[in-house]
From TrEMBL:
Aminoacyl-transfer RNA synthetases class-II family profile domain ranges (all copies): 32-381
Protein name: Histidine--tRNA ligase
InterPro entries: aa-tRNA-synth_II, aa-tRNA-synth_II/BPL/LPL, Anticodon-bd, Anticodon-bd_dom_sf, His-tRNA-ligase, HisRS-like_core, HisRS/HisZ, HisRS_anticodon
Binding residues for L-histidine: D89, L90, T91, R119, Q133, D137, R302, Y306, Y307
Keyword flag Membrane: no
One GO-annotated biological process of the protein: histidyl-tRNA aminoacylation
Catalytic reaction equation(s): tRNA(His) + L-histidine + ATP = L-histidyl-tRNA(His) + AMP + diphosphate + H(+)
Record flagged with keyword Cytoplasm: yes
Compartment list: Cytoplasm
Subunit structure of this chain's protein: Homodimer.
CDD domains per the UniProt record, alphabetical: HisRS-like_core, HisRS_anticodon
Amino acid sequence: MAKTDKADRLKPRLPRGFQDHDTGTLRATRAMLETIGHVFERYGFDPVETPAVEYTEALGKFLPDQDRPNEGVFSFQDDDEQWLSLRYDLTAPLARYVAENFDRLPKPYRSYRYGYVFRNEKPGPGRFRQFMQFDADTVGSASVAADAEICMMAADVMEELGIPRGDYVVRVNNRKVLDGVMEAVGLAGDENAGKRLTVLRAIDKLDRLGPDGVRLLLGPGRKDESGDFTKGAGLEDGQIARVLGFVSAGGATFEETLANLAAAVEGSARGAEGVAELAEIGGLVDAAGYENRVKIDPSVVRGLEYYTGPVYEVELTFETVNEKGEKARFGSVAGGGRYDGLVGRFRPEDTPATGFSIGVSRLLAALSALGRVEDRTALGPVVVLVMDRDRIADYQKMVADLRAAGIRAEMYLGTSGMKAQMKYADRRNAPCVVIQGSDERERGIVQIKDLIEGARLAEAIEDHAEWKEARPAQVEAEVANLVDTVREIVGRHC
């Protein structure tokens, strides 16, 4: 094949805000997803899958700007001129799915799903345009017991993954309480919907920006480190003080926090309803023995507007070291809440729903920092070397026998000699190689070299001639015993 001219050669470039994932990461992710799924199934949730593309209108007003379909999401027009978008999250597609299949689904409907979501936003450190989420939702129950159960399930997921009690907390608040505060500062009504959303998103950045940064976002706006300016909510000083006062209403005890929240929403029936729901959730988690793992926290708001009641976040509290060598916390790795109006957009009546979403990549990074991620690249396939290219069929038969016995195996498909083939096997992390040249074939045997044990033994042999003579960890076996011998070697290293 002719070489490409340098002027025409493409530069390999990963698009900004996207990631490649290597073998070890993918296998560790798969193991983590299986563990999370087992916890969800233990609670009675069943899997479901929706496509990555939805009609843009199905995502609706909850996008950053519904008048510009490509603002915040990746969108395109179909051949019938209908706007389609890559899903922004997994919740809006679930709402569409439930509404479309409403009559045949059991209610409450308990489901879980995972997959990639897409954000057409400016990428930055730890902020990607494509990332994986793992969601669990209960649709069709208005009881706050469903919210309490989600919180308890989130705690169980953390512990099942090896995050010890005390290194995480499930923080709970209620959007009705925040609605009461909004009423108190004069932001009630549809005409203030945009400003309320700006306030919510500002408060949601409290753990990252601190009170001073949030104060700017509630007021005139804030310029970040790159020089980009984010327009603020434009609240007056008195309004900002009341909103920040609500956020800091957490007390030393559960009862004190509830009292502070009740004072913050005094005069608002909706706010009082939210406080009562928090009290009920507190009682339910206490009764189930989760009182030290689930905590009422007024600073939790969640940035999306479709939440209508309890909202929650899973925060990791243990310290780690960031890329600058500074002490840091991972912060939130999961969050969600009640969204009673989302399914109702497709139906004549409201359908209550609640659920939460786990940030898969962020949680995997946290598990890695805790040393809870196993090395998933340690053991590769057994490699059958090709010593005689006229005997490809014989080598392929060996590989087929190994695979039929459930052993991961491959035949070398390159064109290099034995030395390069051995180097290839090392790079594949092969536990052993199978060697059969003409001499071995005539004798009806194979040579099987344990690469892992051989590397260990070779450390004690300094002289190359001695190493060549000793052939550490290399055994001879009859062809009929190939599978049993390889299985024994692989078994030592599993």
